[in-house]
Amino acid sequence: MKITVEMSCRSRKGAFGKLAIACAAIAVCAPAFASAQSPGPANAPLPPPITAIARPTLPGEIPLYPTAAKAKTEEQWEDLRGARLVRNVVAPTLTPVLPDPAKATGAAVIVAPGGAWLVLAIDTEGFDVARRLADKGIAAFVLKYRTAATDRDPTKLIQHMSKAMAALSQDRLAGTNNAKFEGVPQAIEDAGAAVRLVRSRASEWGVDAKRVGLLGFSAGATTGVRLGLLPDAASRPDFIGSIYGAPDVGPVPDYAPPLFAATAMDDPLFDLTKGGLLPSWAKAKRPVEAHIYERGGHGFGSGTSGKLWFEEFYAWLETRGELAPKK
Questions:
Q1: Does residue 48 contact residue 32 with C-beta atoms inside 8 Å?
Q2: What are the tens digits of pLDDT across the range 242-296?
Q3: What angle do CA 141, 143, 148 make, to 5 degrees?
Q4: Suppose 15 and one of 35, 50, 61, 127 were both cysteines; which one would form an S-S bond, judging by CB atoms 3.0 to 4.6 Å apart?
Q5: What is the rounded CA–CA span in Å between residue 155 and residue 159?
């Protein structure tokens, strides 16, 4: 199997593409928080740039587990410089973003935002991406999967994430963070339920049940890859897009779906070139393609490198025949 690696020198721009180190080399990994930090004096306080907002109405939102949807939820929505975040998710949902039927390809992509399994960057790595896919004739579905419980105080949340991501960054520098990432079971379970839901309603949404993929970012990417390794074919996506996901998830079975991966050489958290993800996919003789940009950091979702990965992901789907118009 061929692994295509593209070395591309591009700068990244955009509010959620920046990752800075403040105080004692604190790194923030969640794309939604990447722009929130800025260099400053050692031990300088970092005020949370997050404001609470009311839970929005998401047109067409579907509970993955109807019984859970009836339970009281502490789901927390916030605004970060014009983009929404959601955390403390206990009732996962799937929201369709469908293309114009006149240009529908029949392909479906479930979009799994990142956020270290603590928050979900529901706009920049969710609905923004879903709309781009729909514009290309791909039925998109934004997955709001369950997250770990976090303190409702955004200052404490940032401190929590900063500590965790600083540790990852230090491991990255030491070359020791390429251990197998297991992911979070609840998130993987929700992703599998989303795949089954889309397939069960494929005719209603005008998609081919055999062309249902998952595109994830960071934690969402790792969730999608882990799902693709499970033996349950009904829950397994037909293809996977991993955007700055974990560099290793362990052995890859011979039924793993085709994989598209994109990352940056200057990602302060993960080094895809030293992890086992790509070699393991190739060793299993499963299709894999990777694009590695010179610059982009972690969380370049909608910056310059973000434009590149999207175009290349679309071209990959097209080349593989996933975008043949539905007959």
A1: no
A2: 999 988 888 999 999 999 999 988 887 888 888 889 999 999 999 999 999 888 8
A3: 175
A4: 35
A5: 6
